[in-house]
Amino acid sequence: MNFSLYDILPAYAHLSKADLDPNWVLAARRENETLTDERALERVAELNGWTPPERISKKPRANAFPLLVHTGAFGWAVAEQWHSRNEIQLFGGGTMAWDDVKLAYRQKLPGAGNLESSETAFAVFRDAFMARKPLIVAAIIATVTINLIAVATSLYSMQVYDRVIPLASYPTLTVLTVGVLGALLLDFLLRSARALLLEREAAEMDVEISEFFFSRAQAIRMDARPPGVGTFAAQFRGLEQVRSLLSFGSLFAVADLPFAAFFVAVIWWIAGPTVALVPIVIFPLSLLLAFLFAWKIRKQSAAAMVTGHQKNGLLVEAFDAAETLKAAHGRWHFAARWSRLVDEVLGQEDSVKTWSAVASSLFAVLSQTSYVLIVCVGAVQAAQNEITIGALIACSILSSRINGPLIGQLPSLIVQASYARSSLALLDGLLALPVEREGAQGVRAESLEGPLELEYCRFAYPGGAAVVDIERLRIEPGETVALIGGIGSGKSTLLRLLAGIYSPTQGAARVGGLDMSQIADEQLRRHMGYLPQDYRLVNGTLRENLVLGLPDPGDEAIIAAARKTGLIHMVTDHPLGLSRPISEGGRGLSGGQRTLTGLTRLFLMQPSVWLLDEPTSNLDATTETRVLQGLQQSMKSGDSFVMVTHKMALLSMVRRVIVLAKGRVWMDGTPHDVLGELKEKAKEQKAIAREQGRISAG
Ligand SMILES: Nc1ncnc2c1ncn2[C@@H]1O[C@H](COP(=O)(O)OP(=O)(O)OP(=O)(O)O)[C@@H](O)[C@H]1O
């Protein structure tokens, strides 16, 4: 039998603790790939946009496993570890001689980033940078050579003035000119190669870093997410600010810094300490001033950045809540807030701009002053025959090299550095937020079958009091439960805790005896089918929304599920059917249509635990009946079912009702008992109200 990647890649992802996108197969299936041949992995990586697989040519060490191996006889397999000196252990049982392995690969799967690391944002950039050591070494060699060539051109001028002109020595001039032109050609080639190579690498670094931060942001625990979407998104722009500071252009400027000392040494060597004293004083003075400016604008640039993010947040909110704003005639209120923020940003940026303009002029003047003083001091020395005219010319050329490139870029570098510093602090804040189940690193249990349990479970939103406080709650497999209670009593929050979307602030939430916070997210999500109250769709097609995060079951299964929920009308009413486009957030669809899409997705998913938050609140009576029948058909006998509802009529479809009040379990029993108790309580309250009415009337 010839095993294909279809069979073994999920096992490889499982062993490498990676979160394999279930739709990875789609692209290959579209191309009718069998994925059994030697090149299959390279093609899969290319079709899915993954980084190309790393070929392992030498005998791997124990820490290099798991590996994907291809053998001529059996096709693809996953090597788990060494079995003996020359044999490898294969996933699913069996061993194989290493010599029989034709090809071995390591494949980096997207999202398999080291998300649990508590690195700082700076460390993320630094590591990406340091991972490219050979290139950095090449860049350093090029930088050294380019600077040496700069010395060569100044020495050329010195020789021309001192040796060629006085003696009219044309052969020497020819030799020197050819030599220096050759050096300039080399300079051009080195600069171009350095820029080309490094910019290409910089683009790769960008992809790597932005993917890291994107996955990290997506992995942030739901209950720890910052509330402002727009503000949160704007923080991401900080990545670009840091990136532009760390661009190779600015790094070259900084790399030139040590050469300033080298050029001063050359000036000293050519013209002696008196001339060298000029750059020795002016260069450090420029640097000192640069640090002073940086310190001066730091506070303002940080403030401008925060306000800029708030501006972005307001913009997103204004678009998101456009309908409410229009209905409430609240546009002016937002316009006023917008103008206030714009003024604030302008005010804060104003001082940054002023200081950077002052810095620009000052550095330009300092650079000129350095040149003038070198010429002036050099002229005195030349007049006293202490140095030659050639040496004077060479020193003036070198002075422009000391103050030129770096000092010229300093003002913009200072501003960039200041913004980048604030951005790094914000990105650090993002990295400090707790992530779900450490990305893909959680425990992968054999099975999650078993009860849902909460024990001494308290949950509070950031900065708030506990909204759920439950000592013990156990929902057995196969149980059907309705969660009811007044508005704001904590039903939705409790459902999210049961779904593992939120983690308890105190206590534990378990499924099948395992703490949910320990279980790999992907396994937990496959087990738990959670339908939020306001189901949002994502930009794409209806089909994409229906199979989001699921292995594509094919159109027939989708249509069958859509028939069960009634979503089928939405499919047949549109000329594009399942390919009907869905706009961001599912705008353009009714609330009921969005809920049906979410429900159909759950039917396709076939979870073991169904957690539905007011699933029928947007549905008409006929659709509600159809959906409930569909649910009963779709649920397997051991599936647990928990539904938040305000509709008392729905209690007949469950065996247990839990009533919440102020986040605590107030009543818990069969629908008959709970409804009876609720009626009793209502009667008591009426009697108390009547009594109070009589007393106050009397
Ligand atoms: N994202 C949030 N941040 C802060 N507080 C929240 C958040 N979501 C809900 N709350 C608060 O938690 C409490 C419980 O809210 P929850 O949505 O769980 O109640 P509920 O019983 O589902 O209400 P409803 O019947 O209105 O849907 C409420 O007081 C609410 O104000």
TrEMBL record:
One of its GO terms (cellular component) is plasma membrane. It is found in: Cell membrane. InterPro entries: AAA+_ATPase (IPR003593), ABC1_TM_dom (IPR011527), ABC1_TM_sf (IPR036640), ABC_transporter-like_ATP-bd (IPR003439), P-loop_NTPase (IPR027417), Type_1_exporter (IPR039421). Pfam families: ABC_membrane (PF00664), ABC_tran (PF00005). Its main location: membrane. Keywords: ATP-binding, Membrane, Nucleotide-binding, Transmembrane, Transmembrane helix. SMART domains: AAA (SM00382). One of its GO terms (molecular function) is ATP binding. Residues 137-406 form the ABC transmembrane type-1 domain. It comes from the Bacteria. It is a multi-pass membrane protein. The chain crosses the membrane at residues 135-156, 168-190, 245-270, 276-295. Signal peptide: none annotated. Residues 452-687 form the ABC transporter domain. This is Uncharacterized protein. It comes from Pacificimonas flava.
